[in-house]
Structures are given as structure tokens and as C-alpha cells.
């Protein structure tokens, strides 16, 4: 028995296509909301070879659903003018965090949004 047999194998590396698609999933949230992350997650959720893409599409979907809730609350609160500030802050957070997540996903890193309600596990 060699020492190699006692070691765990390294985790599989992500393909460049998965990294690029994860980048697009995160960035698509800026313009299209939760639609693209939902489609990518539904297509790849049962494929064990797409674990990275599955994880990142769930993360983007959870973030976009959280933002949708914030936008709804902000729209309701716009009657007392604070909702405009809430929606503006959510919009800026969407742009900045989606770009950060996309860049991390392009490198093959697992990214977690700082404030996303994990509705889909």
C-alpha cells in the first residue's frame, strides 16, 4: 500500500465553459433578474459534473430573489419617499456584487453574496 492510496483525490477542476457560464449567470442578474439563473439551475441541477455551475446558479438565483423582495418593499415604501433610497441602494448593490461574483466565478472560485436569503439549497 503506497502513501498515495491513503490520500483523498483532489477535487475536480471546473471546465472553462462552466466558469464562463457562471460568469454570465451572475452578470445576467443585472439586466434580467432571476430568469437566467433559474433556467441554468433547472437545466443543470441533476448533473453531478456541473456541481460548480449548479452552486453558482443557485447562489445567483437566491441573490436575485432577495433583491426582488427588496425592490417590492422599496416600491411599497416609496409612498413615504424612503423606498426610492432603498431601491437605489439595492440597484447599486446588484451591480457591484454581481460583477464581483462574476469575476470570482470566472476564476473558478465559489462566491457567496454577503446578504442573500438562501431560499434554494
Overall outline: elongated
Total strands? 0
The portion of residues assigned to helices is 55-70%
Q: What is the H-and-E element order?
A: HHHH
Count the DSSP helices: 4
Tell me about the biggest sheet? Answer: none
Output the radius of gyration: 17 Å
Produce the secondary structure layout:
Elements: H1 16-32, H2 35-44, H3 51-77, H4 82-106
Helix pairs in contact: 1-2, 1-3, 1-4, 2-3, 3-4
Could you name the key traits of this structure?
121 residues, mainly alpha, 65% helix
Characterization of the model:
It is a multi-pass membrane protein. It is found in: Membrane. Its main location: membrane. The protein has 121 residues and is an all-alpha fold. The chain has one domain (14-106). It is built from 4 helices and no strands. The chain has helices spanning 16-32, 35-44, 51-77, 82-106. The mean pLDDT is 85.
Task: Describe the structure concisely for a colleague.
By secondary structure, this protein is an all-alpha fold. Helix content is 65%, strand content 0%. It comes from Stenotrophomonas koreensis.
Amino acid at each position: 500500500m503506497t502513501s498515495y492510496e491513503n490520500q483523498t483525490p483532489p477535487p475536480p477542476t471546473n471546465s472553462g465553459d462552466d466558469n464562463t457560464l457562471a460568469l454570465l449567470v451572475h452578470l445576467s442578474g443585472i439586466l434580467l433578474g432571476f430568469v437566467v439563473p433559474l433556467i441554468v439551475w433547472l437545466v443543470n441541477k441533476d448533473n453531478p459534473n456541473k456541481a460548480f455551475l449548479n452552486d453558482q446558479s443557485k447562489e445567483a438565483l437566491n441573490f436575485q430573489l432577495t433583491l426582488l423582495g427588496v425592490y417590492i418593499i422599496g416600491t411599497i415604501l416609496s409612498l413615504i419617499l424612503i423606498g426610492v433610497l432603498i431601491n437605489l441602494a439595492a440597484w447599486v448593490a446588484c451591480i457591484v456584487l454581481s460583477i464581483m461574483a462574476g469575476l470570482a466565478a470566472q476564476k473558478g472560485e465559489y462566491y457567496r453574496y454577503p446578504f442573500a436569503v438562501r431560499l434554494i439549497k
